[in-house]
Amino acid sequence: MKLDVIRGKEAATCAAIGVAGALIFLFAFPKGAISTLMHEVLDLPGPGAGIALIVGPFLIIVALISSLLSRGDGGAVIASLTFAVAYVLVASLLGIPTNPKGAFGSPVFIAAVAPFSIAAEAVMVLGKALKTAWRCMASGALANAVLLVFYWIVIFPRTYRWIDWGDVPLLMGLCLACGLASGYIACAISKPLSRALALKEKE
Amino acid sequence: MCGPADFEALHTCMTRVAELSAAGVTTYAVCKTASLCRQLRTKREEQEETALRNVPAALAEEDSSGHSNT
């Protein structure tokens, strides 16, 4: 299967979307907010609720919008990895406190986003026969699940503790549901955006 | 519970998300309004062009009916 990898202006646009996403995420979710919302307000078990309901879906929206706005392949990977790198750099340079449990301010976060981005991109590339909305939803669900499992196996055992087996079905169910929803949202947002960009190009 | 609760951080988060949402909605409304104005302007210009194109044809018709009378 031949991949039409994006380059030049399209790659730069995807990277810019990734950076913008990272800055918005840093601004919108200060340290402790996600954890408090998940465990004190929603009374969800952990660890992993914040990843499944907030971090993963946000990343999915950033990645899939980039993928849908570019003609070639690779937009999701570029946007996701740029998001992770920008997040780590900005948090370190500005001394923004991050939750050590999620390893957000460290290179381990970039390592977590890598398989996520590959999973998202793989579905977008291999699922071209599907309607865009279904493709995005499938991509969102798989990518979110990959991110959560990576956190459960690689990160949380070092930063916090292992997940209880009894909590896995609920958290994985929520993860898949939020992945589907955020994939659909990304598809819905990208339609008017791509029309606006096409109009601008025409002018 | 995964770590200490921080309701101040949550409050800050809610405020910032509301601000970002408001900014997003405002931006969308402004862009949509600008797009509608552009469409209306283009439509008006097309109508004026059509009207101007029809003027020579109307004049020619008048001319030929004037000649035939004389």
Can you write the helix and strand succession of chain A as a string?
HHHHHHH
What percentage of the residues of chain A does DSSP assign to strands (E)? under 5%
Order of helices and strands of chain B: H
> Which band does the percent of strand residues of chain B land in?
under 5%
Q: How many domains is the backbone of chain A divided into?
A: 1
Greatest interface and its residue counts?
Answer: A-B, 24 and 17 residues
Which radius of gyration of chain B do the C-alpha atoms yield?
31 Å
User: Helix count of chain A, per DSSP?
Assistant: 7
Q: Regarding quaternary structure, how should these chains be classified? A: heterodimer
What is the number of E strands of chain A? 0
Distance, first to last CA of chain B: 102 Å
CATH level 1 class label of chain A: Mainly Alpha
CATH topology of chain A: Arp2/3 complex 21 kDa subunit ARPC3
What's the story with the biggest beta sheet of chain B?
none
Shape of chain B: rod-shaped
Q: Any low-confidence stretches of chain A, pLDDT <50, length ≥5?
A: none
Secondary-structure class of chain B:
mainly alpha
Largest sheet of chain A: none
